[in-house]
Amino acid sequence: MTQDKFIQDNFITKIIDDDNDSGKWGNRVHTRFPPEPNGYLHIGHAKSICLNFGLAKKYKGKCNLRFDDTNPLKEDSEYVNSIIEDVKWLGFQWEKEPLYASDYFEKMYNYALILIEQGNAFVCDLSFEEVKDQRGTLTKPGSESPFRERSIKENIELFQKMKEGEFKDGEKTLRAKIDMRHSNLNMRDPVMYRILHSSHHRTGNNWSIYPMYDWAHGLEDSIENITHSVCTLEFEDHRPLYDWYLDRLSVYHPRQIEFARLNLNFTIMSKRKLKRLVDEGHVDGWSDPRMPTVSGLRRRGYTPESIKNFSDEIGVTKRDAIVDVAKLENALRDDLNKKAPRVMGVLDPIKIIITNYPNDKVEYLDAKNNPEDESAGKRKIAFSKEIFIDRNDFMEDPPKKFFRLSVGKEVRLKFAYYITCNDLLKDSDGNIVELHCTYDPETKGGMSQDGRKVRGTLHWVSASKFIEADIRLYDRLFMDENPEVGGEFVKNLNAESLKTIKNAKLEMSLDSADSNCIYQFERTGYFILDSKDSKKENLIFNRAVSLRDSWARINR
Ligand code: ATP
Ligand code: MG
What we know:
Layout: H1 11-22, E1 30-33, H2 43-58, E2 62-67, H3 77-90, E3 99-100, H4 105-117, E4 121-124, H5 128-133, H6 152-163, E5 173-176, E6 191-195, E7 209-211, H7 213-223, E8 228-232, H8 239-249, E9 255-259, E10 263-264, H9 271-279, H10 294-300, H11 304-314, E11 322-323, H12 325-339, E12 342-343, E13 345-346, E14 349-354, E15 362-368, E16 378-384, E17 386-390, E18 410-413, E19 418-426, E20 432-440, E21 457-458, E22 461-462, E23 467-474, E24 498-506, E25 518-521, E26 525-529, E27 540-546, H13 550-554
Parallel strand pairs: 1-2, 2-3, 8-9, 10-11, 12-25, 14-20, 18-21, 23-27
Antiparallel strand pairs: 4-5, 5-6, 6-7, 13-24, 14-17, 15-16, 17-22, 18-19, 19-20, 23-24, 25-26, 26-27
Helix pairs in contact: 2-11, 7-8, 11-12
């Protein structure tokens, strides 16, 4: 089963193997996935989830789901809930309950007091801007804060007052006392705490100071006894600070390991930018099926297995690269090809009258549910004198290699009969409105008795027994493979990224479709009932992905 597949060997598994050989962590593997609840998870997070939970599984270890909720200004419990739902849907189980950095605020505060007592931290009265201005550059050392030499006693008193809410936002910070000439800018007396009189979604108004990422993150890992703290490459330059804090405190000290984040072409992958698409109404919320969010992919028709397979296939590296989004789409096709039930649906119908078929007769024919999976069984589909086929399966003046229907040609109707087209009917504008065909009763089931062959096999739907639905055809959200080209990503939105087809004709069995099942509409693509907008009286299906990659052909 694909679900139980382990992640492939990579440089991180090599580190863990070496650690296990040397007994460094007592053969323990304990990872974590630490989202900040300031937006919905996207496919990049899914990659990190698959890696962290995958490592825990591979080594029979543990993985925590931990909310890094240290910034009350941007965080919200709506995001917490969506993250929990998404991780569950991907099929991963965290250790015990979800954990929250905010539960450690008191511990972190006490650790900060220890650093102050050691003379390793001080309260600074410079504003955030002044701190930034005095930080220096890669070629220029920073300058020391005039408050750097405050006494330990004064620092402790001021820090306590910061906590008690005696100062205004931004009036003071707590900073580590490291080295303003350090070659790594992160080590130049970084801010550990800022004052923020803001209500937190879990701790309410208990706190007036909030910890900065670098200070908080290592402590979170340490408190939870994490062994391998896996994060993305942009934190490589922060590792010396991660290590500095934990070393100074002489506490349990996990190892931080960085890997290259996932980037996809045609895709924006930043919560801040995705939020902008939502807030400005460019999409229908975070779960819009065009969004690269886990909830968007789910609504679009992605399966957890396709995402896990994709994540495994692209591997884990130290080099930044941009992955072709077609790879993600192909992972979905591969998965759905194996398990999607086949049904028939006609998106752009044209009517066929089978002139030699009895007027009121309806026959129920056997149709295979999945040629890739015998155990999926068969179903009955209605056949009648009038049927629909897709308009592009007929041509009045066909080129030589057109094996579908045209006047004088014979084709197979899948699971039904051979039909030959004899005539067509046009309206006053010259549009074809009806095709007149005859069927061969000897070809029931789509096989001829006399061994004659036809090249084309068409899907179809009975025009006396069918249901109607709207179909949403999705395309890439951005026109350029680099959504940022020319500056503003919102200027590169693809105006054609959603097309809706009204009144498509579908076989009756789809009456009982639900949004947990993804279907292959024969010869057309993979479709899922829209979990948000579809109603019994107005069914809506989303196209998850076409059967083949049409972009590959266009861009060749
Ligand atoms: P973004 O920059 O997209 O808003 P983030 O890094 O701010 O994301 P966090 O909530 O801090 O989001 O991320 C949680 C975890 O997911 C972190 O360990 C982070 O490194 C990882 N992660 C985020 N984006 C990606 C990505 N594109 N590829 C792999 N891992 C990622
Ligand atoms: Mg972040």
